[in-house]
Recover the amino acids of this structure.
């Protein structure tokens, strides 16, 4: 915080010295935030506490109204520099544990269903998704906006449950699951993983069990975000599926930019983890920008080539984790 205050106040002092009628620089007694700031500073609540405090202290200088406004504007500009540089501020995942229930489906030691309501298709049959897939009820599926999110799930009965939490990736919806509570329908392998050694079968025999769960960052070491062009796509109707997005794993917004343009066109959420845009004809190569539910954003430049074809997958050089 001190570096911000020093930079801002130094600029204010210089400006004050060059002001013909401006008062000398003095520090007023400590004031509350509501007393020292104009109403327009409500936007500063979006800043981190450190930068917000720097803005508050800057506005406590006893200066003329014009100089006060100048310093206020300078403070906000400096505070927002990280955003201007592309380091977007974002919320963090809620890492608290919450109560829920869990069941399992498929073969007792199976990897779960093929495909699923998120549209990942055969990806769920191979690593890193294999045996880690899970279906959830509407509370977490959120009409497909929860696809790709990762959760830790842990059972509670110490007589049969281990202390380990199984990590699952949301790839499917559970239509018959409760709509007023959180429910996980796991693969037989993932469900059994929560048991102490040798009790996997006994745990599965219980059917539905109480669990606790929380969000956890998705991790795909060595993988970069990929974009699968869905079948039926044309330059007038382009549909994409995002694969291997780590960190939050889900998608909040998605945009595309065609060749030779500086405009990002918004894509619409269709179903599951699939997004599309109608218009055009769109000229490739395409750049794709996506953001997660917490506001993390990245842009993959020219990731889809001009000679793209439906049902092909194009891998970027980026992911949220190095």
């Amino acid at each position: 915080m001190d570096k911000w205050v020093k930079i801002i106040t130094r600029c204010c002092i210089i400006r004050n010295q060059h002001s013909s009628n401006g008062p000398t620089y003095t520090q007023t007694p400590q004031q509350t935030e509501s007393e020292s700031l104009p109403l327009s500073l409500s936007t500063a609540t979006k800043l981190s506490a450190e930068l917000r405090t720097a803005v508050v202290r800057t506005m406590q200088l006893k200066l003329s109204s014009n100089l006060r406004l100048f310093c206020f504007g300078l403070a906000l500009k400096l505070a927002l520099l990280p955003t201007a540089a592309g380091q977007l501020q974002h919320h963090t995942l809620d890492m608290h544990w919450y109560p829920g229930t869990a069941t399992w489906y498929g073969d007792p030691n199976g990897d779960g269903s093929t495909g699923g309501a998120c549209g990942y298709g055969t990806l769920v049959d191979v690593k890193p998704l294999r045996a880690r897939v899970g279906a959830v009820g509407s509370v977490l599926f959120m009409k497909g906006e929860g696809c790709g999110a990762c959760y830790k799930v842990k059972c509670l009965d110490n007589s049969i449950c281990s202390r380990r939490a199984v990590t699952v990736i949301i790839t499917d919806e559970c239509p018959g699951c409760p709509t007023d509570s959180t429910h996980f329908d796991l693969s037989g392998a993932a469900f059994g993983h929560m048991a102490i050694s040798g009790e996997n079968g006994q745990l599965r025999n219980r059917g539905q069990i109480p669990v606790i769960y929380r969000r956890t960052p998705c991790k795909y070491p060595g993988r970069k975000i990929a974009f699968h062009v869905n079948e039926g796509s044309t330059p007038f109707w382009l549909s994409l599926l995002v694969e291997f997005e780590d960190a939050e794993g889900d998608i909040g917004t998605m945009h595309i930019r065609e060749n030779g343009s500086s405009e990002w066109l918004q894509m619409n959420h269709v179903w599951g983890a699939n997004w599309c845009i109608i218009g055009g004809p769109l000229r490739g190569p395409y750049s794709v920008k996506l953001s997660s539910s917490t506001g993390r954003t990245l842009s993959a430049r020219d990731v889809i080539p001009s000679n793209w074809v439906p049902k092909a997958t194009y891998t970027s050089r980026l992911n949220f984790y190095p």
